[in-house]
Amino acid sequence: MTTLPKIKTSSWSTPLPPDHLRIGISRSVPRGPRLAGYKVMHELAPGSWFNSVSAAEYDRRYREEILARLDPLKVAAKIRDLAGGRVAVLLCFEQAGRGEWCHRAMVATWLSKAIGEPVPEYGFENLPQDRHPLLPRELRAVPLAMAVNRRYLRDFVAELIQAPKKPGKPA
Fold first, then answer.
1. pLDDT tens sequence across 8-21
2. Domain-by-domain residue ranges, the chain?
């Protein structure tokens, strides 16, 4: 059984081993001396709103305007085809470890769910998919107990706000 090459994410500025192929998914590529042999997938680049909205709005727009019109299995096949047997590395400008977030983490999560294998950040392969270092904090998975408590608290508050007032009782 042959193993399909892995797909990873990284920054344009991160040095990569020779068996890794750079595939840009940013709106542009680095200026100055060109990186030899890179490919570009414009269909995964964010919209013109990319640097003017909150992380939550970005996530909503990116999913609705970019990812929703794409088939993740076809995108994964194209990535593997472009890589030609090498490890495909989807690139943008943000660097891991600087407290920033990037759409490539959203792409990684989207692809991972479709292909059933992790799409990690290069150098952070030990992290679970839902802890990708460039995933916005509010989009990272929370422990089940916290999620249950947050859901309970949200629902409880919603019920209080929407509860009909009983006649004869002051508001």
1. 999 998 999 999 99
2. 7-162
